[in-house]
Structure prediction request, 79 residues.
Amino acid sequence: MPTQIRAAFDAELRAAHTSATSEQRWAALERAHILSQPWAWPHTRAHAVMLRVAWSEHDRREAAGQVLQIAHGERAGEA
Prediction:
Protein backbone atom coordinates (compact mmCIF):
# COMPACT_ATOMS: atom_id res chain seq x y z
CA MET A 1 0.00 0.00 0.00
CA PRO A 2 1.55 3.32 -1.01
CA THR A 3 2.49 5.68 1.80
CA GLN A 4 -0.11 8.35 0.98
CA ILE A 5 -2.93 5.84 0.78
CA ARG A 6 -1.75 4.16 3.99
CA ALA A 7 -1.82 7.55 5.74
CA ALA A 8 -5.35 8.23 4.50
CA PHE A 9 -6.48 4.72 5.48
CA ASP A 10 -5.03 5.10 8.99
CA ALA A 11 -6.61 8.55 9.32
CA GLU A 12 -10.04 7.14 8.47
CA LEU A 13 -9.63 4.34 11.01
CA ARG A 14 -8.67 6.95 13.64
CA ALA A 15 -11.65 9.08 12.63
CA ALA A 16 -13.93 6.07 13.05
CA HIS A 17 -12.48 5.44 16.49
CA THR A 18 -13.03 9.03 17.64
CA SER A 19 -16.36 9.72 15.92
CA ALA A 20 -19.13 11.10 18.08
CA THR A 21 -21.95 9.37 16.21
CA SER A 22 -22.57 6.02 14.60
CA GLU A 23 -23.20 7.71 11.24
CA GLN A 24 -19.80 9.45 11.35
CA ARG A 25 -18.12 6.23 12.44
CA TRP A 26 -19.61 4.22 9.56
CA ALA A 27 -18.82 6.95 7.02
CA ALA A 28 -15.15 6.86 8.08
CA LEU A 29 -15.12 3.06 7.96
CA GLU A 30 -16.64 3.07 4.47
CA ARG A 31 -13.91 5.44 3.28
CA ALA A 32 -11.23 3.24 4.88
CA HIS A 33 -12.80 0.21 3.21
CA ILE A 34 -12.72 1.82 -0.23
CA LEU A 35 -9.10 2.91 0.20
CA SER A 36 -8.04 -0.60 1.26
CA GLN A 37 -9.75 -2.66 -1.44
CA PRO A 38 -6.69 -3.34 -3.63
CA TRP A 39 -4.66 -4.75 -0.69
CA ALA A 40 -5.69 -7.95 1.10
CA TRP A 41 -4.44 -7.30 4.64
CA PRO A 42 -5.62 -3.70 5.00
CA HIS A 43 -8.94 -4.69 3.41
CA THR A 44 -9.35 -7.52 5.90
CA ARG A 45 -8.41 -5.13 8.70
CA ALA A 46 -11.13 -2.71 7.56
CA HIS A 47 -13.69 -5.51 7.68
CA ALA A 48 -12.44 -6.61 11.11
CA VAL A 49 -12.90 -3.08 12.47
CA MET A 50 -16.36 -2.94 10.88
CA LEU A 51 -17.21 -6.24 12.56
CA ARG A 52 -16.04 -4.91 15.93
CA VAL A 53 -18.14 -1.75 15.53
CA ALA A 54 -21.20 -3.71 14.41
CA TRP A 55 -20.82 -6.01 17.40
CA SER A 56 -20.46 -3.09 19.82
CA GLU A 57 -23.57 -1.46 18.34
CA HIS A 58 -25.52 -4.76 18.58
CA ASP A 59 -26.12 -4.72 14.84
CA ARG A 60 -26.44 -8.43 14.13
CA ARG A 61 -27.14 -8.04 10.43
CA GLU A 62 -24.04 -5.91 9.84
CA ALA A 63 -21.91 -8.20 12.01
CA ALA A 64 -23.07 -11.25 10.06
CA GLY A 65 -22.27 -9.49 6.79
CA GLN A 66 -18.78 -8.64 8.00
CA VAL A 67 -18.13 -12.23 9.09
CA LEU A 68 -19.09 -13.36 5.59
CA GLN A 69 -16.86 -10.70 4.01
CA ILE A 70 -13.88 -11.74 6.13
CA ALA A 71 -14.46 -15.42 5.38
CA HIS A 72 -14.82 -14.71 1.65
CA GLY A 73 -11.62 -12.68 1.67
CA GLU A 74 -9.70 -15.53 3.28
CA ARG A 75 -10.99 -18.01 0.71
CA ALA A 76 -10.17 -15.64 -2.16
CA GLY A 77 -6.62 -15.33 -0.84
CA GLU A 78 -6.18 -19.10 -0.91
CA ALA A 79 -6.75 -19.34 -4.66
